[in-house]
Amino acid sequence: MNLFRLFSKPQSAPAARERLQVLLAHERAGTAGADLVSKLRDEILKVISRHMQIDQDKVNVKMERGEKMSTLAVDVELPFDAAKAAIAKKKAA
Amino acid sequence: MGKVIVVTSGKGGVGKTTSTAALGAALAQNGDKVVVVDFDVGLRNLDLVMGAERRVVYDLVNVIQGEAKLPQALIRDKRVETLYLLPASQTRDKDNLTPEGVEKVVAALKKAFDWVICDSPAGIERGATLAMRHADVAIVVTNPEVSSVRDSDRIIGLLDSKTLKAENGERMEKHLLLTRYDPTRAERGDMLKVDDVLEILSIPLLGIIPESMDVLKASNLGSPVTLADDSSAPARAYFDAVRRLKGEAVPVTVPGEKRGFFGKFFGRKAA
Known about the structure:
heterodimer; A: 93 residues; alpha+beta; two-stranded antiparallel ribbon; B: alpha/beta; eight-stranded mixed beta sheet; 44% helix; globular
C-alpha cells in the first residue's frame, strides 16, 4: 500500500471495473439491444395515439442503464391543436 | 457543409478510437459542432471511451435500416454540448452496413455538423472501406513500430484508390498522427524516430501523441483525454493537432520527457 496514494487523485481503475461490470451485465442479459426498447416505444405510442394524434418523428427515447435499475424516458411532443381536436371529437361523439 | 474525417490505421490497437474521441472532443471544446461516428459494427467501443455506453438506444445500423431516425440515434455528450456520438451496432452483422445507407447518413450529418469524424474498424474489409469512402480528410494513426507503419502504408494506398475522392480523380488529404510515442526509447534507438516514419510514409504530420498514463486513465473514466485533463501532455498534443487540422501553422514538437533531478544529470545516456 502506497501511502502517497491516499493523498493523490482518486484512482481510475475502480471506475473502469464498475463501468464494465454494469455494461457487460446488460449486454449478457440481452437488455442492451434496441429491440426491446423499440417494442416498448411502439406499444407506448400506440396507447397515446388512441387518444391523440402524434407525429412519430417527434418522439425521443432515452435510456440510462444502471447497476440496480435502468430508466427509460419516452419524450412525445404533443401538438396543442391535436389535443384540442381529440377533445372536440369526444364531445361530438 | 461540414468536413468528413476518417480516422484509420489498418492495424488494430494503435489508438484510432482514443484519437477519434480526443480530436472530436477537442474540436467541440473550441465550440465547433462535432459528431463522432463508430463504424466498428459488432465490436463497438467508441461509446465506452466517450462514457456514453449506458445511454445507447439506437445505432448506425438502426438508422440505415430505417428503424430509427438519425436525430433519435444521436447521443449528446453530457460535458460538451456541441459534441454528439453515433454508436455502431453491437449485435448486428456488419453486412447491414450498406454503401447507400452510409452515404445517406454521412450526407445528413454533413449538413448538421461542422465535423463528422468516422472511427474506422481495424483491417481493410467492408467496415474500413465504408468508413473512409466519403471522407474529405484522412487521419492515419500510426505507432512507431514496424507492423503499424507497414499497415499504414497499405491504408494510404486504399485511401488513394478506394475513396470517392480518389475515384473522382481528386487528391485525398492525408495526415499522419503518430501515437504512443516514447521519447526515451526513441532516443535510445529502440524505437523508430519521427523522421523515420515520416520518410517512409511521406504524408504530412498532424501531431505526435506521447505514450502516457493519462490516456489509460481517461478511458477508464469514459472521458476523452482532452476532457479528462486538458493540461496533460497527450491532451495538449491533441489540441495542437486540432489547430493544425483547422489550417493553423503550429510547429510540431517531439514530446520530451519531464525529467526529475537525477534524470536531468544522468537520464540521457544512463539507460
